[in-house]
Amino acid sequence: MTELLYYTDAYVQEFDAFVTAVEEERVALDRSAFYPGGGGQPNDVGWLEVDGQRLAVTKTKKEGDSVWHWLATDGGLPLITTGAAVRGIVDWERRYRLMRTHTAMHILCGVVWRDYGAQVTGGNMDPGEGRMDFEFASLSKDLIQEIEAKVNIEVAAGRPVRTQILPRAEAFEIPDLIRTKINLLPEGIQEVRTVEIVGLDLQADGGTHVANTQEVGAIKVVDYKSKGAINKRLYIALPV
Known about the structure:
Blueprint: E1 3-4, H1 5-8, E2 14-23, E3 26-29, E4 31-32, E5 46-50, E6 53-63, E7 66-71, E8 85-90, H2 92-116, E9 120-126, E10 129-134, H3 141-156, E11 161-167, H4 168-171, E12 191-197, E13 201-204, E14 220-226, E15 232-237
Parallel strand pairs: 1-4
Antiparallel strand pairs: 2-3, 2-8, 3-7, 5-6, 5-8, 6-7, 9-10, 10-15, 11-12, 12-13, 14-15
Helix pairs in contact: 2-3
């Protein structure tokens, strides 16, 4: 089992851990700050330091209770055994841009839900940019400009962003906790992590976020497309 450091503190950049399993070019650790991907947010990359060598982590993925870390194989890997001590280093520039992007998506979702009552039907992100689909019957340039102005008011408001882990039954007493058209939370999940942009948005979410909306920076709606009769896609971008 891997302790998920990112789950309770998204700002952990470096950490010490022990190897719990080794399979060819990948290792599992007893604790990790690498986000393994999910919910539209890509997995983290970075480095592991072991026996004086720094190895690139090219991919991370959660399988069962363990987070696996794929290591670059150029020149061959050193012998890594179960129980070995390692130091993990997250590619922070990339991760922080993803944190800003993910929070920007929640700001967008919060504004669209609050002011237009539209549910999310899909979404995806890369560092500094993302797209989100909503149940809109129609969109216009004027409406897009209106939405962009509203989301940037929320950015400038400096709203705190808080996470909390709740028992499933308690979490589902929160109105509109699931903003997606389909509830993606498996039945077997007994605890639900929520992300709250105070005064704007409260959702079930397992990803990483900034601590305050001002960290996001100005959000630009760069494009929009119709993806069906009541499915419209908005594309956003953030400043570097």
